[in-house]
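Lecture 7 notes: from sequence to structure.

We start with a single chain of 90 residues. Read the sequence below before looking at the structure.
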Amino acid sequence: MVNDDIDARFKEAFEKASNMEGKLPPDVMLRLYAYYKQALKGDQFSIHTDTKGLRNAFKFNAWIQLKGMNPTEAKEEYIKLVNSIIEQND
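Now the structure, written as tokens:
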């Protein structure tokens, strides 16, 4: 697929992920979160000091593991992951 439509495909994948029924395993949720954040923010990591807690630490850790991945690659990985989840549930 052409890179020009990556943003449209990413948005579509986000819509699909947001409307999924049922609960996804925590590791899959963390991967989705990390790819999403990397796609939008890149290596501009930030953590809100007012939202402490184990859950946020896991989310931040998942995101920081993608350091160096360019946003286009993160979008592609996000799209692939969403599509694989949909295929498994069909």
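The chain has a mean pLDDT of 90. Keep this in mind for problem set 3.
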